[in-house]
Amino acid sequence: MRIGDLPLRTVIRYVKTTDTLETARQQMLKTNVSSLLVVDSQAAPKAILTSRDMLKVSSTEHVPIASLASRPLLTLSEDADMRQACSLMLEHGCHHVVVVRNEDVVGVLSSLDIVAYYLSL
Asked: Which positions fall inside the CBS domain (predicted)?
């Protein structure tokens, strides 16, 4: 199955590399998401910040996002299959992959999305 055929999270939340972790934490809580794309001043995605990354620090107040966000940004084409997504997540020990069409972000695939898909079969 193509990952582009899954019900991806298409409302993607962003934070800037210059924002603090507290800003990101508040956004995650408010929107009930476990990851935020980190964009530079030209709005180009550069990294991903996950709730798991946030567990690495004891305070989020004055910590810049750029110091903690996961890099490199792992992406897959929407034409990639589920096996490729699972392999990439396992290889990098991550739970989120950014799905792209050409170079444009079209969604974020999480390990929970994959579990939900397999449970629906």
From this structure: 8-65, 69-121
